[in-house]
Amino acid sequence: MPANLTPAYREAEERFRQATTPEEKIECLEEMLAVIPKHKGTEKLQADIKRRLSKLRQETMSGRGPARRETAFRVEKEGAGQIALVGPPNSGKSSLLAALTNAQPAIGDYPFTTQAPTPGMMAYENVQIQLVDLPPVTPDYLDPGLPGLLRRSDALFLVADLASDDLLGETQAVLERLEQAKVFLVAEVPEDADPRLAYQRTLLVANKRDAPEAGERLALLSEFFLPARLHILAVSARTGEGLEELRQAAWRLLDVIRVYGKPAGQKPDMEKPFALPRGSTVLDFAAAVHRDLPAKLKSARIWGPSARFPGQSVERDHTLADTDVVELHT
Ligand SMILES: Nc1nc2c(ncn2[C@@H]2O[C@H](COP(=O)(O)OP(=O)(O)OP(=O)(O)O)[C@@H](O)[C@H]2O)c(=O)[nH]1
Ligand SMILES: [Mg+2]
Question: Is 56 left (phi over 0), alpha (psi -120 to 50) or beta?
Fold first, then answer.
């Protein structure tokens, strides 16, 4: 077993061990494949996961429909990270997606307008963050594909409705319904998190702050969600208030850093940063550039916040910082 597997991988693997249905197993294996560090040392393991996946997929295809239903809930990740929008009906999830991205989801003044995940790309400075609009969650309704999508995404917006009389009840119901599905919405993932449960970093987005009585409702929401310690940001998809702050908050929520690649003797490409989890090293960056690179890597030089001086030579385990420039030598 390669020693350099990440906590995210080990959590997915632990969930796989606990999984009871083929659908759950497929979901866990897919997650393991998505988060496994891609380099030579894990190639055998990757092949093994793929083999188990295709076997399970074949088994479920010959059976009933849920596995196929599940595939409708699979959204390929793009950009610096994926944030899923979850919440009660009519809270304005689709309106937020429309206001923040070029996507054009159906928006309606009635519940259950959205029936399938709809992605869109949101610009923040020089990066793109993927937002995924979802069907609503109520005490009686949770699409079976939804918890898996939430687990696989990088962070969540819980969208609450400041125009609703049942603001607290319906928002709490979403949290409870998801907890039954072992998905916990938290401000920070606890260090000693139980690997069988999924904790997702979440921002509580209080939408419709333009609505009458939104102020009082926001105060209620803050008071109520104080124990859960979710950070709250009030916005309006309709007037655009708070949306710039929301882009920034999305970036902070993802907790990633931008790293620029620099070919030797050339200028760095400042247009297209790589987005890496905070705490990533030179070696992680090399793996993100190309899966074969870590094995060939001889040395690296860096410029930017984590460099003691411009062009400093660093070891492969050097921890990078946001906006570092890295030149890899093979
Ligand atoms: N006043 C006000 N109304 C809004 C705002 N955002 C959305 N709405 C309205 O709220 C209603 C529901 O909006 P949607 O974006 O469809 O809500 P949703 O959360 O996607 O709903 P479902 O798909 O059913 O879960 C529509 O009538 C929107 O025009 C806002 O910021 N202010
Ligand atoms: Mg919708």
Answer: alpha
